[in-house]
Amino acid sequence: MIETLKKTAQDAVAALQAAGADKAQASVSYTVTHEFNVDGGEFSLFRTLFDKQLAMTAIQGGRKGVVAQNRYDEETIAESAKACLEAAHSAQPDENWDFAPLSQNEDFVLGEVKPDTDKLFFRCQELMAAVKERYPKIIMEQMIVDHKEVYRAQANSYGVLFSAHQGCYEVQLMFSGHDGDKASSFFGSGVITDSLDKPFLELGSIAEDFENVEKQIETTVVEGKFQGTMVVMPGCVGSLFYSLLSDFAGEGGLLSGTSPWKDKLGEKVADDRITISLAPLDERIVCGSRTTGEGFRAEDFDVIRNGKLNAFYLGLYASNKLKLPRGKNDSFNVVVASGDTPIADIIASIDKGILVGRFSGGQPSSNGDFSGVAKNSFLIEHGKIGPALSETMISGNLADMLMRVRDISSEQVADGMSVLPYMAFDGITISGK
Question: What pLDDT is stored for residue 203 in this prediction?
Fold first, then answer.
């Protein structure tokens, strides 16, 4: 299969060149998915899915065209090459479009490429039984558990040719807590793993998430408005840093000139304890990408290292346009360095604040101001976690938060996609009724 896909990718590049492309790239993939579904607490579906994908990109006269198809037979490739050049002809020219030069071509094998469907079903049954026994107030609204086996090849007109054969299990859970007529809000949890050696309940933050949602059936309201400490659970840390890195260190904010960090490369932008890496090669990341969309070999890199802005999160086009170094991968496998303090001790040090599991709000402004609702949250008072809160408003500024780090937990949660600690930030505005 891999050799066939490699040839298909090269044939697609050749078709683009024959159609008139100065530079060309193609990627092809074939995915087999074995999937179990649970709806309303009952197994509802087992299915096997097959998916083909073809993506072709042409650069002609500095103009870029892109097409995507779900087939890659000879006729489709020829038609797509023509359509790709037509798309390029209608685009605006820009000399900064390019692909990766040839370095060293490689073939990658990652994860558990073949599924053990019997053991996968056993782990699903085991999780459902454990939830019923240990978390009787939890209702599993939906559970999707699958194994994806992916064959992929990527080629370009410089001679780049990569392939990958990878496999992993994905667990996606949506659940809520119920006690009579009372119910919590929905909450999602999940992991990616390349092994079925452990029960799903022992992976990521799944067990903690069930426990917290049971406690959120009964909620109270924060009285008044105050400035306090916000402790962010690992899953929420990931969503906050996605916004931060996208707006401050990513292509959008830098190309538009709105990023507060546009002139701060090498300068201090955060507390010295903060190191944020994009690390698809980290051993705790499951089947992290080994190549970029432009055909470079992926490498781990630090966006922030010990509080200083170390690198931007840029693809080749933005790198050429801005005359700035390219980011060494285009994943979002975030790894945040742990601290030295257990989360229990961090909580014990806080007089008044909030523990936040999820944030619901609009995209932060270009300068980092944010305001929204803290969901799946708890009040912290006098060093203890108090009652669950009904929807409570929180507001602050992402850039300021990085300078107001109270502490970072020694614990980290690895869910196969990211590795994140708990983080505590001072000076957050918390508003109730």
Answer: 97
